[in-house]
Amino acid sequence: MVLTLKDFEQTYFYKTELIQLCKVYGLPTYGTKAELNKYLTLYLSGTPACDIK
To answer: How many CA atoms lie within 13 A of 1 on its CB side?
Structure first.
């Protein structure tokens, strides 16, 4: 399954699930739940993973 921004925004994720998604996409896995959401939103909006810190 490919995760789209729309699907991501409409689904509730626990922090542990967000950490797993960040690992899959090569994003930072540290920070608050809000920060993890921000990393994933930026990535799914088209920002390269290497630019997300």
So the answer is: 6
